[in-house]
Design a protein that fits this description.
Elements (H helix, E strand, L loop, with lengths): L2 H14 L3 E3 L11 E3 L1 H19 L4 E3 L8 H6 L2 H4 L1 E6 L6 E3 L18 H6 L7 E4 L3 E3 L9 E3 L5 H5 L2 H8 L5 E10 L14 E11 L4 H18 L7 E5 L9 E9 L2 E12 L1 H10 L5 E3 L4 E3 L2 E8 H12 E9 L5 E9 L10 E5 L6 H13 L4 E3 L5 H11 L3 E5 L1 H6 L1 E6 L5 E5 L3 H9 L1
Parallel strand pairs: 3-9, 19-20, 19-21
Antiparallel strand pairs: 1-2, 4-5, 4-6, 7-8, 9-10, 10-16, 11-12, 12-13, 13-16, 14-15, 17-18, 21-22, 22-23
The structure holds glycyl-adenosine-5'-phosphate.
The site of glycyl-adenosine-5'-phosphate has 19 residues, from strand 10, strand 13, strand 16 and helix 10.
């Protein structure tokens, strides 16, 4: 299958099955914004929960949830007001706007030139001079829309952590090294949004800032790099689809930076950054707020500004990577009603069971002899522990296919044998193998598998 087909197919499945919809679709959509549907929000929550447990269910990492709107001085201190810009050019012919540093990879805005890249228009002198464009969204607090009331929608969650460094340290009595983690929305007025959820204007981040002694930065940088790569692998991304990109050109705050990249159909793209941010942020907030964001080491009697190792993952980008990675089309043998066999293609999402939005689907084989009631009771029992879907419409084969497309790891069927010996069939999404188990053992069986 051509690589590009996969993205198109996944976008189409995402809409059909209720993972992701275009924002404000009935009004023609809003560029760079997407809505998560019933299955999408469940899967996204599962990803965030896995990250949250991985990061904060440890002794030395605390969680917070800071406000999206922050004091405007925060963004002066962080350098975003001054530096968070992309170079932008306008095309005098098609009136399109482009990032001047991405012209080789961006399509030209004129629909008449199919496959033409924007660099060509640049070479032909169609573009204006590049100018810097700040990516932060501005708004106002209170009724007066004047410059003294400007606030920004946060472009990263990290700053909410730095400004709470003292609060968290004191409230939780943590000693170095310790981290603060946060999941939340971030907003960037990207000049060009592209590739489905990859580059959007509103997205979610899962960030952790790990505060350390300055002389331990290299050790912790390596530690977090390994931990974060392992999280992706453990949740189903094959090692060979990941790449570590080492940054030569560093952001104004960083001493070292690597990207964890996933091989998307359009090529390798960053899903998480690991940064050694030194003491830049805490020092800048100390300078701008007048509050000393420092640490006193009881043992060595030293007072210093900690260094920070940051792990910064996109929840939405990770979602896209996990979804694309799970997509498959497989040729399978199908048994026809007359006993003959034929082949068909099944579309399946091989999602890690813990990320799958629905953990189990329950079907009565036929709608008679009390099978529906038994299936409904099983559904209710399982619902105490997980998200379950009850389906009694259409041939069982069709019901399996629908659940395969949703990535449901287990399908349970109540049949005539259930009426005599209390057993049901349970079918594994990936192998399609079925086994019979006692219906009273279903909860234990599934919980063990989806952990
Ligand atoms: N605090 C550091 C920071 O924000 P970043 O590399 O700009 O670093 C971190 O962003 C992660 O956030 C990226 O690896 C990506 O997963 C996600 N991200 C950034 N911009 C995004 C966008 N426009 N759309 C979707 N995800 C984005």
């Amino acid at each position: 299958m051509a690589k590009i087909d996969i993205t198109e197919k996944v976008v189409s499945l995402a809409k059909r099955r209720g993972f992701v919809f275009q924002s404000s679709e009935i009004y023609g959509g809003l560029n760079g914004c997407w809505d998560y549907g019933p299955l999408g929000v469940e899967m996204l929550n599962n990803i965030k929960q896995s990250w949250w447990k991985e990061m904060t269910y440890r002794e030395n990492i605390e969680g917070i949830d800071a406000a999206i709107l922050m004091h405007p001085r925060v963004w002066e201190a962080s350098g975003h007001v001054e530096n968070f810009t992309d170079p932008m050019v306008d095309c005098k012919e098609c009136k399109g706007r482009f990032r001047a540093d991405q012209l080789e990879e961006t399509d030209c805005g004129n629909k008449g030139y199919k496959g033409r890249k924007a660099i060509k228009c640049h070479q032909e002198g169609k573009f204006t001079e590049a100018r810097n464009f700040n990516l932060m969204f501005k708004t106002f607090v209170g009724p007066l829309e004047d410059s003294s009331n400007v606030v920004y929608l946060r472009p990263e969650t990290a700053q909410g952590i730095y400004v709470n460094f003292l609060n968290v340290k004191e409230a939780s009595r943590q000693k170095l090294p310790f981290g603060i983690a946060q999941i939340g929305k971030a907003f960037r007025n990207e000049i060009n949004t592209k590739n489905f959820l990859f580059r959007t204007r509103e997205f979610e981040q899962m960030e952790m800032q790990f505060f350390i002694r300055p002389d331990e930065d290299e050790k912790w940088f390596e530690y977090w790099k390994e931990q974060r790569v392992n999280w992706f692998i453990k949740n189903g991304i094959p090692k060979e689809k990941l790449n570590i990109h080492v940054h030569e050109k560093l952001a104004h705050y960083a001493k070292a930076a690597v990207d964890i990249e996933y091989e998307f159909p359009f090529g390798f793209g960053e899903i998480e950054g690991i940064h050694n941010r030194t003491d830049f942020d805490l020092k800048r907030h100390t300078e701008y707020s007048g509050k000393k964001l420092e640490y006193f080491d009881d043992q060595t009697k030293e007072r210093f500004t900690p260094f920070v190792i940051e792990t910064s993952a996109g929840a939405s980008r990770s979602f896209m990577a996990f979804l694309l990675n799970s997509y498959d089309e497989e040729e399978v043998v199908k048994e026809n009603s007359d006993g003959t066999k034929s082949t068909e293609v099944r579309t399946v999402l091989h999602l890690h069971p813990s990320f799958a939005p629905i953990k189990a689907a329950v079907f009565p084989l036929v709608n008679r002899d009390g099978m529906q009631d038994i299936a409904a009771n099983i559904t209710e029992d399982l619902r105490n522990y997980m998200r379950v879907f009850y389906d009694d419409s259409g041939a069982v084969g069709r019901r399996y296919r629908r659940q395969d497309e949703c990535g449901t790891p287990y399908c349970i069927t109540v049949d005539s044998e259930t009426l005599t010996n209390n057993t049901v069939t349970i079918r594994d999404r990936d192998t399609m193998a079925q086994e019979r188990i006692n219906k009273d053992n279903l909860v234990e069986f599934i919980l063990k598998k989806i952990k």
